[in-house]
Amino acid sequence: MLDALDRRIEDKRQDLVALTQDLIRIPTINPPGDAYVQCAEYIGNRLARRGFEIAYIRGQDTPGDSDRYPRTNVIARREGGKPGSCVHFNGHIDVVEVGRGWTVDPFAGIVRDGKVFGRGACDMKGGIAAAIIAVEALIELAPDLAGAIEISGTVDEESGGLGGVAYLARQGYFSKPRVDHVIIPEPLNKERICLGHRGVWWAEIETHGSIAHGSMPFLGDCAVRHMGAVIDRFEAELFPLLASKHTDMPVVPEGARSSTLNINSIHGGQPEDFDGLPSPCVPDSCRMVIDRRFLIEEDIGEVKDEVVRLLNRLAAERPRFSYSVRDLLEVLPTMTERDAPVVKAVASGIEAVLGQRPDYVISPGSYDQKHIARIGHLHDCIAYGPGILDIAHRPDEFVVIDDMVASAKVMARATLALLTGGKAAPEANGKGRAS
Ligand SMILES: [Zn+2]
Description:
Elements: H1 2-11, H2 13-24, H3 36-48, E1 53-58, E2 72-79, E3 86-92, E4 111-112, E5 115-117, H4 121-141, E6 148-154, H5 165-170, E7 181-184, E8 192-197, E9 199-208, H6 223-243, E10 260-268, E11 285-294, H7 300-317, E12 323-331, E13 334-335, H8 341-354, E14 359-363, H9 369-374, E15 381-383, E16 398-400, H10 401-419, H11 426-434
Parallel strand pairs: 3-6, 3-7, 7-15, 8-14
Antiparallel strand pairs: 1-2, 2-6, 4-5, 5-16, 8-13, 9-11, 9-12, 10-11
Helix pairs in contact: 1-4, 1-10, 2-4, 4-10, 6-7, 8-10, 8-11
This protein binds zinc ion.
Residues 92, 123-124, 157, 186 line the site of zinc ion.
């Protein structure tokens, strides 16, 4: 069975390439959320022909949703021969903007040197295509497997996933008893299993001043100078503190095994989108957005307190300093256990197909697993897919065809093992135990 499955996937190599090209040619750029309906229907139509029941679910009234740019998701479900568990493959259909520096057409799906090129090739239309081919090969060979298989194409992952996986999770699409195991074929490299991600705290810090004529700044109080004092404190105290915190989470790249903070933006004074001459004013407000990524060993309350304590110390020492902090986004770190069923099934598949032990990694940034864990309360979830992590969002993005084929084999074996309780995959399990 397993050899037949591998051969069937090899036979589908051309189909896999063509499917990846077709998906790349639908330019689902987010923002604004172009061509979502077209892409969702492309996936839905294909899977409907293979006996899946198709549902289109619009993330009504979620950020960016409008009649012009509907946040349309597709979920395809196929029931097997008898009741059993459900394996779900979830891929986001949105891609980021093109950016500069391309030497090929980003939406042509060009094939060259064993790679498919295009925006989204790696992140993550190649992964969606590999999952679809894996599932199609499996159901051709074993149409009466127990349980169910689902494939979803969801929107807005690149902008937080609120109209996509978060919306669907709220409706119960990512919870038991409907779904038991989830694989997200994000580009984490074909030999890596991504167990989860670090936590996120986005916040806006505002410093307050008072407005006055710019020729007599001593009559006012400059909020931008107060913000400068905040940044000085960050440099002297906060950044060294964060760099000193290390995690046991296997985060890649290694630099992300410490806590990090990015200053996302600073705005103070005259609005930026105004191209006339400014009027002379002392700015009475300056706002800074911070993007703090934290570790599973850290508590989110403590993460926030570090910043608040620093600001309070500054307020005690610096005349007229006052501030406010506004939370923008919180995501707790998540890490699936290594002995969870989906992890063991994919690990066995990697050992059998690639002949090596998997690397277990944690993503530096968050992805849709957060919604599945927090809203769906489903913890048997990982990211596993063919793309190369470093290629995501870059010019001349590509996915290696051999990697897609290999990861499709891994996904098919893992699905078979999960739906049969491992009974149909004795070799894979044997190797898994030996390690
Ligand atoms: Zn992605």
